Amino acid sequence: MKFIYITFNITLLGQILEMIDGFGFQNYQVLEKVLSKTAVGDPRMDSAVWPSYSAAVIIQACPNDKVEELYQDIEQRNQNRFNDQEFISLVVMPADKIIVPN
Question: Is pTM, for the whole model, over 0.85?
Fold first, then answer.
């Protein structure tokens, strides 16, 4: 099992949730307002100087066989993005011990 952290511009939230539901993930959380600064695009600090903000999705229990599919899907979306503001970040970490509802 893996622990997945995905962060992206809030404008992509609907698309990301559709993607996650399409993979059949049942245990995840959505953080709708995340302040962020990345190497690409403008900072998203929800302020007068840096308006907008990011969102994040955490998938606590991603089966190992789904990780590569998810990675490829996000990589494709990043290659086809309209601009740097639409970049999607993905972090995959081991989940050695987890307790989640079945």
Answer: yes
Would you call 83 exposed, middle or buried from its count of C-beta atoms within 10 A (0-12, 13-18, 19+)? exposed
Model confidence over 48-68: pLDDT tens digits? 888 899 999 999 888 888 999
Distances (CA, A) of 9 to 12, 42, 83, 85: 6, 10, 11, 7
Residues 6+ apart with CB under 8 A from 23: 66, 69, 70
Number of separate domains in the chain = 1
Residue 3: strand pairing partners:
93
Owning domain of residue 26:
2-94
